[in-house]
Amino acid sequence: MPDSLTERQAFMVLNDLPNIGPITLNRLLAELGGDPREILSATRRQLEAVRGVGPETSAAVLNWRTHFDLAREEERLAKAGATFITTRDDGYPRLLKEINDPPIGLYRKGDYLFGQPCIAVVGSRRTTLYGQAVARKLGAQLAQLGFCVVSGLARGIDTAAHEGALSVGGKTVAVLGCGIDIVYPPENLDLYRRIAETGAVLSEFPFGRKADKQTFPMRNRVVSGISEGVVVVESDTSGGAMITARFAGEQGRLIFAVPGRIDQPTSQGCHQLIRDGATLLMGVDDILSELNYLDGLHPKTASLTDEPGLLEQLMPQLGEAERKVAACFSGGGQMGVDAVAAATGLGASEVAAALMMLELKRLVAKRADGAFEARSPG
Predict the structure, then answer these.
(1) Most buried one in 55, 119, 303, 374, CB count within 10 A?
(2) Which has the closest alpha carbon to 333: 268, 252, 189, 325?
């Protein structure tokens, strides 16, 4: 048994073995005790007793040292200022754990820990000025409302969505279809660096792995898996964004599509999605409406007035502006945006964004007269 390996190192070894998919890796973990070191110390017979594991897979596990240089990979991590996180780490996206084939580990550059709900904004590399403008606006508006904008750092729509979020000081995450040390496209190097400074760049692939026809679909399932919903801004009928939308459907995520001109090839994919049941997106209010509707189908959550001290318990889960705004309702008061702004010293737009997020989290409710109050229990 490789006793000298830590659990994280063993996860890294398994994650980077060739030709072993995440479904097989998760099955091995489930059937061999959950400790990745147990997999690396298992016999061929034990490995091949697991469904889906044949001679090629077992050989890769048994001979992992010939495939993977752990010391070199850790040196690259340190040099890149990156980390390797596993499904057991707090920084691993919560929703991603729920999909059928989550990566057992992710390379991460940046310190963002996914404390905000995520919405993916994706689309064509060969985009129109209209598509770029829509993606940039959506990225900015979603970020202002407290969402983290997820995309793939590609040319076109992805780039515009990331830039929109950054333009308002919001959070954005880029998921790569290559190793985290490869910036593709190369002209997005500055964007890559800016995302890593305030958000995160993620990849499930080892250093040096170049993008190919296999890695991009794998990346797309992570983009949708992280997110509450996926917005397709522009895509032809066979674009990568359509693959992301398909994964979103399989994962039970919301799917939105932005309509475009009927004679524009990059609108055909969006129109197909709308025909197939995706929500036609006219603006961020459509996203908020869908999220609120789904939340109404969930069991009722606790409110600020449920019990003494609940607000204090919830505070660590809220952003700074949300905490200030939430405190205004701890005594059960009813206040409008202007009154909250006066009480907190925040700007009206900041208050409106915080109230929207507290409403999504079912902590406050908007009254018919436009004022807000703490949501009642039950």
Answers:
(1) 119
(2) 325
Same domain as 171, residue 289 = yes
Q: Report pLDDT digits (tens) over 88-134.
A: 998 899 999 999 999 999 999 999 989 889 999 999 999 999 999 99
Looking at the DSSP bridge assignments, the partners of residue 373 are 334, 365
pTM score above 0.90: no
If asked whether residues 53 and 150 sit together in one domain, one would say no
Structural domain that includes position 36: 7-68
- Which strand ranges, in their side-by-side order, compose the sheet holding 334-335? 334-335, 372-374, 364-366
Distances in Å between the Cα of 202 and the Cα atoms of 150, 179, 217, 220 are 10, 9, 15, 12
pLDDT at 293: 62
- Listed range (229-238, 279-288, 309-318) with the worst mean pLDDT: 309-318
pLDDT grade for 378, boundaries at 50, 70 and 90: very low
Structural domain count, the chain: 3
- Residues 314, 284, single domain; the answer is no
In this predicted structure, what is the pLDDT of residue 184?
A: 92
CA distance 272 to 366: 35
CATH number at residue 27: 1.10.150
Question: Does the residue 22 lie in any domain?
Answer: yes
> Both 288 and 251 in a single domain?
yes
Same domain, 175 and 251: yes
Q: Domain check: are 361 and 218 in the same one? A: no
302: in domain: no
Q: Which residue has the tokens 């794998």?
A: 218
- Residue 376's pLDDT band, with cuts at 50, 70 and 90, is low
Q: Is residue 272 one of the residues assigned to a domain?
A: yes
